[in-house]
User: Which sequence fits this backbone?
């Protein structure tokens, strides 16, 4: 059974339109289930019985926490729960006990599909839960963005609604779920596919299919091992037709920095970035982002990461996020700062797409052996390319090391 973020989303999207029955977790509705499970639960909580329950027989039913539980107990979107889920059928426990990462506010929400969102009650517990699915295409081909799927109520059933509705006040990520989604994951309910993820997830029709590494066919004769990097101090208007003719594989843009060279806080995002990425997208080219790390402590690194998230969530970098160390810190301090960044990348679903964009002197300021299994390393090695004219050498080009 796939304990993954993508499966949580796939399962939830497949349940949209189905009924809400209190204290259920994906069972098939019938008279016995209603009498043995639903009525006792309604009575315990002094809730009214459902007058229309007989019209909702023979379909899967859930309550809010049961939608999460059902995803982890069902082998397919139409299957029945098997009792093997490593979480509880209790909203507050799903927030506190079943999650490895949580926040009592939404300011740090990672927009990672598969993240749970909650509504709190007056006692500090959680009264309702939904599954953030981000972007999905429904059966009519309509694209929905920044969405949450929830078993809302008996009147509404399982629905999707925008995260921006403002109802949600906290979030968490399940310990037992692999974070195999990214901020740009798209779920397609028509073809049962998931795109823009590091791995290909199980289909909507059958969760028993194994999750496999996505395969991409690369024709090396049609490319050169270069990407073009636009430095933060150089923002020329580029001719993307000429760039593509030169067989450049992608672009690297400056994402921003929280502290400038004088240690003054500034607006994080590179002001040229929206237009640069618009041009890049129009040309059908992928891009990476590099950002300057000037933090001198874990606290400042945390500030930098929170500011960076605005950029990453708005402009998801398909070629990764790269850190350029711009510090005079000790090795121990730099190592601590990189730990903070990596922890955030894990929350955002970017841990498979992160790297260090360094010159050799900067590399000597970290304990590389501690990070070589988590970060890619891009050693900056400027080189002369005589056959490419000067316009294309602004910005600089660097060979992509294996």
Assistant:
């Amino acid at each position: 059974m796939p304990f993954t973020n993508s499966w949580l989303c796939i399962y939830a999207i497949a349940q949209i339109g189905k009924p809400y029955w209190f204290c259920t977790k994906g069972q098939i509705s019938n008279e016995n289930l209603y009498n043995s499970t639903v009525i006792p639960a309604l009575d315990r909580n002094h809730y009214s019985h459902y007058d229309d329950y007989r019209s909702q027989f023979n379909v899967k039913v859930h309550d809010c926490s049961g939608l999460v539980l059902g995803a982890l107990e069902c082998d397919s979107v139409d299957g029945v729960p098997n009792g093997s889920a490593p979480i509880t059928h209790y909203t507050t426990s799903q927030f506190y006990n079943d999650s490895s990462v949580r926040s009592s506010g939404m300011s740090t929400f990672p927009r990672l599909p598969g993240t749970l969102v909650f509504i709190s009650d007056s006692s500090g517990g959680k009264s309702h839960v939904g599954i953030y699915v981000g972007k999905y295409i429904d059966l009519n081909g309509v694209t929905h963005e920044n969405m949450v799927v929830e078993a809302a109520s008996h009147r509404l059933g399982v629905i999707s609604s925008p995260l921006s509705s403002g109802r949600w006040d906290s979030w968490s990520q399940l310990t037992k779920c692999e974070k195999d989604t990214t901020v740009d994951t798209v779920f397609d309910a028509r073809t049962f596919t998931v795109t823009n993820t590091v791995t290909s997830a199980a289909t909507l029709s059958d969760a028993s299919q194994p999750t496999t590494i996505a395969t991409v066919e690369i024709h090396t004769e049609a490319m050169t091992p270069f990407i073009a990097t636009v430095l933060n101090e150089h923002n020329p208007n580029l001719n993307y037709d000429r760039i593509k003719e030169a067989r450049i594989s992608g672009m690297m843009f400056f994402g921003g920095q929280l502290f400038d060279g004088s240690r003054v806080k500034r607006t994080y995002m590179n002001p040229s970035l929206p237009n640069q990425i618009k041009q890049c997208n129009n040309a059908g080219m992928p891009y990476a982002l590099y950002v300057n790390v000037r933090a001198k402590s874990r606290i400042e690194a945390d500030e930098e990461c929170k500011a960076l998230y605005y950029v990453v969530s708005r402009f998801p970098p398909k070629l990764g996020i790269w850190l350029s160390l711009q510090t005079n810190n000790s090795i121990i301090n730099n190592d601590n700062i990189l730990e903070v960044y990596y922890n955030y990348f894990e929350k955002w679903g970017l841990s498979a797409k992160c790297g260090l964009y360094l010159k050799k002197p900067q590399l000597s300021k970290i304990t590389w052996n501690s990070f070589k299994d988590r970060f890619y390393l891009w050693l900056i090695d400027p080189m002369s390319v005589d056959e490419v004219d000067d316009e294309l050498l602004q910005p600089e080009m660097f060979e992509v090391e294996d």
Summary: Residues 331-348 form the longest helix (18 residues). The first strand starts at residue 25 and ends at 28. Residues 9 and 311 are 24 Å apart (CA to CA). Confidence is low (pLDDT under 50) at residues 197-225, 382-402.
